Amino acid sequence: MRVFVTGASGFIGSELVRQLVAAGHAVTGLARDPGRARIVEGLGATAIVGDVRDPAVLRDGVKDVDAVVHLALPRAGEKNLEYASDVSKRGTQGMLNACRAVSLRSFVFASGALGIYRHGPGEWIDETAPEDPRAPSMHERWMLDKVVRAAHREWGLPATILRPPIVYGPSGAFKEFFLDLMRRDLFRVPGDGSYVIDLVSVEDCAAAYRLALERPPAGETFLVVDDDPVTMRAFADFLAAEMGRRRPGRIPPFLAKLVAGREAVEVLMESVRLRNRKIKERLGWAPRHPSFRDGIPGVVRAYLGSAG
Question: Does domain 2-168+199-227+273-288 bear CATH number 3.40.190.10?
């Protein structure tokens, strides 16, 4: 297929572009500056330089393509909320407007799993759970999901929404908030660490996006998560051991919020177990790393190797 990817030089986007090119697809990736465009081109794709909020750029991107992946959304916990909101709203609406003028086989939208569902502490959750986002940034992302779903219902956008939780790999937010701090012995576990977190490797997350493009289940929403929810305490201890660092101490949640952002910490500490049965059954997705215990060692090797 001919595929247009926004956020193509980002953490998940670059891995997705790599996988799409390896699978034989012709990829055009949106990058916000020439330096980012060179990353996209280095992966074997064609690059378009521009802002996701520019309608002309998006119209150029979707011209003559079969499929679109919209990944150019700010990450959860972005501290510049005004900027994040502008990129999210204008970029997504502009993308939908551009797609309305073309005939697509599939449209895949990047959402998030954390802070979306109503649940009790440690409860198992799947896509049938009530959606009840309370944090402002999570509510805004959820509202974008509703806009995408409305486009599917009202004018036939072949949209699939994917919701990963914490995506780990040697770059991106995971590098900034976990790997970098752990390497400098600055990482601390917010609170007592007894709450459950959910993870997926960047390779497995990108594979889910690729499958949703190739086998479009239009109108569906999927959780993209590995098989092994874990407490924050156990995960932090495992990561520290893999990096050869001491066991991280604890930090009061209010101090953690000063570093990572209030909403990011509150959502992290919600304690929920996410199920992946639907995406396995409907898309045939099978994580290469069913547990963080399988995936983190390779991430640590790649990170430490690049760090010096």
Answer: no
